Amino acid sequence: MSTGQPAQGPTTIDPDHLPTGDEKVAAVRSMFDAIAPRYDLVNRIMTFRMDVGWRRRAVHRLALAPRSVVVDLACGTGDLCGELARQGIRPVGVDLSFGMLAAATTAAPVLQGDALVLPLPAGSVDGATCGFALRNLVALEPFFAELARVVRPGGRIALLEVAEPSQPLMRWGHGIYFGHVVPWIGGRLSDAAAYRYLPRSVAYLPEPAELVDQLRRAGFADAERQLLSGGIAQLLVATRDRP
């Protein structure tokens, strides 16, 4: 966990290199520190505001009682925290990037921390969310194990991530847009290297069936995956197994 100041100026991430281990942690933290000021603006433009509906659906699928406590992991500037609060949930945000937290607009409590080593007691939250950050984690299986540790039995999780459409024409068009238009938009409004790297980071994700299997093995036996907006995004939802 870093306690320093956010990075200044353009990120130093190499868009043509996919780092691993500690190198990835440092690169991801630096990148998000750098792009934090215009992160929400770029998201709205490049998704045509579909990201707003995706987050609303994710929170709805949690199906938790009002006043439930939900930790939003990789919370960024607090978009999902805001949606959780609007739907009567009590959110707590956690993010690795100090720059993102400094730019947060949510009224929810937020703290800097590593999603793989959460500063939360076992079974202390009713649910967890994560928006488009699975591919930025060093490893998914330890993350899913940490979700299983902090979410109480019977609690719920909802994880959003990008996806690749199965329909060939849709997949071709999405590849053009995500691989070329998104970096162009990001380069004009924020940081060119970061938005060239982000589409390539999809390579970190396992195959969909393996992604669901990893969640089930971690303690979420009913895990399911739903494609959104023609398959350009995916939502993973599950209930924490009871003893």
Beta strand % = 15-25%
- SSE order, one letter for each helix or strand: HHHEHEHEEHEHHHEE
Principal-axes shape call: globular
**How many β-strand runs?**
7
Structural class based on helices, strands and sheet pairing: alpha/beta
CATH C-level category: Alpha Beta
Number of domain units: 1
The largest sheet is:
7 strands, mixed
* Biggest sheet strand line-up: 3-2-1-4-5-7-6
Mean pLDDT reading: 93
Uncertain runs: 1-9
| CATH architecture annotation | 3-Layer(aba) Sandwich
Radius of gyration, taken over Cα atoms and rounded to an integer in Å: 17 Å
> Percent range for helical residues?
40-55%
Descriptive account of the structure:
With 243 residues, the chain is of the alpha/beta class. Helix content is 42%, strand content 19%. The chain has 9 helices and 7 strands, in the order H-H-H-E-H-E-H-E-E-H-E-H-H-H-E-E. Strands 3-2-1-4-5-7-6 form a 7-stranded mixed sheet, with helices on both faces. The longest helix is centred in the C-terminal third of the chain and has 22 residues, at 168-189. The radius of gyration is 17 Å and the shape is globular.
Short description:
With 243 residues, this protein is α/β, with parallel strands linked by helices.
What are the salient characteristics of this protein?
single chain, 243 residues, Rossmann fold, 9 helices, 42% helix
